[in-house]
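Data availability (excerpt). The following record was deposited with the supplementary files.
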Amino acid sequence: MLLAVDIGNTHIVVGLLDDSGKVVCTWRIAGQNHKTEDEYGFLLQWMLEHAGCTRDELTGAVIASVVPPLTPVFEKALRVYLKVDPLVVGPGTKTGVNIRYENPKEVGPDRIANAVAAYHKYGGPVIVVDFGTATTFDAISRNGDYMGGAIAPGVMTATDALFSKAARLPRIELVRPPQAIGKTTVQSMQSGIIFGFAGQTDALVKRISAELGGNPRVVATGGLAQLVAAESETITDVDPTLTLEGLHLIHKMNARA
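Predicted structure:
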């Protein structure tokens, strides 16, 4: 069994995968920079126990992190509490992807993991839209090269800014409104957020597709992928565990290296 840890700015997603790369269990926890390796270590132990997996069955661990202060915390937690030496995805890690970015070191490891998994599962060309703290768009060519992409504010990031800057607007549940023309303030906000982000997604995907060429698959992942994808004209697939599967593939490549 492999433990994959995707450390994002808002949430940390932990996945347990079997040798074939199938995701057995996933957990989503709040990222907190002030927590210690002991706190995260106990939490990781509980996750394994909850999944019915013993420490001896754990063959490895892999980390993708966009929060530098948390990376060493999880490295130590995994070494001390689970007795595994994790692979931290970063510059020099074997990924099998040719990164055609002006500075490849600028590309987040989660975006690389998404590209690896998307090309492995769907072939190329393919576009990955990851709905996280930021909404990222990643373009992978027909032959599997990472071509670059776009970064936009995430759904919750923009929504929280709206709540905090507009005193009379309430916090709302993000569900599909009955129509685009809202009849209440809540419905109007739901329309603007959900239909608005679906429209933004489609507009960017169409531009990226034109530049990428071919007829790319468009794969959505991340916490709010399903909600936005339901209103999108361009998203063809929703794959919630794409990043974790990409980390499994990267770990497998480097274990053989």
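Summary of structural features: The helical segments are 37-50, 70-81, 109-122, 155-165, 185-212, 225-229, 242-256.
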